[in-house]
């Protein structure tokens, strides 16, 4: 892949003078990180919430990039037909590009289609294309349809040293998300700090329990991340308090604020980690990533 014109810097080592920001989002003090803790075994995390617009893809790509800059080896598997994670990580996913669809439907090996991302050292992506839109109907007639991703990932991990596998899922609980839930060991739920924040989480938890009971006994809800937090409103504080009451151990201390830079980054084919890491959103994702790594 061609190199991005934006310079890459070591994000977890040493200070950096942050660039100026607009009045809408003040510059925050840059957090200095050391190399992130490497887990003893590959951690496989699915990021899911069937409620749309909660920051699933944004969370997936920024945590993956932050881990890569922290010295870890990461594989992000794009399970969403929209391919937004592929876009944010600078990966070509035009129709006809081979990736997740071919792995699930045609039995291709993951290593044939995994692409190195320029967004961070040690970051690889299995891209998604619009072809995935019909995959759920096509999977229905395939024996062992819910384990297609598990089987392919097991083969890939046999020959590749990976610290984290991250699945970015569509906003539904269909066969694509089910494949990710069966293949994963942990689930991370992003919850927006807005009205109806917990809408859909109850159904997701029921699905998790069904998967645990029938298809994947190892799956645990390990992490809840509060997103789109607006410190100026009482509503955000109330929602955060309610979520922490329901998930006291799982909820990260770090919250992801509403951020102009986070919203802008994907339009440049970047994560906020490389687009503007000194922004409030960039620093929050670095802190959240460090929390996740420290739970290994």
Descriptive overview:
By secondary structure, the chain is α/β, with parallel strands linked by helices. The chain has one domain: P-loop containing nucleotide triphosphate hydrolases (Rossmann fold, 3-Layer(aba) Sandwich). It is 34% helix and 15% strand. The chain has eleven helices and eight strands. It has helices at 56-69, 84-88, 100-105, 135-139, 148-159, 175-183, 201-214, 234-246, 260-264, 272-275, 280-294, and strands at residues 43-47, 74-78, 115-116, 123-126, 164-168, 186-192, 220-229, 251-257. The chain has an eight-stranded mixed β-sheet, with helices on both faces. Helix 1 crosses helix 11 and helix 5 (148-159) crosses helix 6. It starts with 42 loop residues before the first strand and ends with a helix. Residues 1-10, 12-24 and 26-32 have low confidence and may be disordered.
Structural class: alpha/beta
Q: Report the biggest beta sheet as strand number plus sense, adding barrel if it closes.
A: 8 strands, mixed
Please, what is the CATH homologous superfamily? P-loop containing nucleotide triphosphate hydrolases
Tally of structural domains: 1
**Residue fraction in strands:** 15-25%
Helix content: 25-40%
> Would you report the number of β strands?
8
Evaluate the radius of gyration. Answer: 18 Å
- Report the CATH topology name: Rossmann fold
Low-confidence stretches: 1-10, 12-24, 26-32
The name of the CATH architecture is 3-Layer(aba) Sandwich
Please give the CATH class: Alpha Beta
How widely separated are the two ends?
Answer: 32 Å
Count of alpha and pi helical runs: 11
> What's the order of the H and E elements?
EHEHHEEHHEHEHEHEHHH
Nearest-integer average pLDDT: 87
The main sheet orders its strands as: 3-4-2-5-1-6-7-8
Basic shape: globular
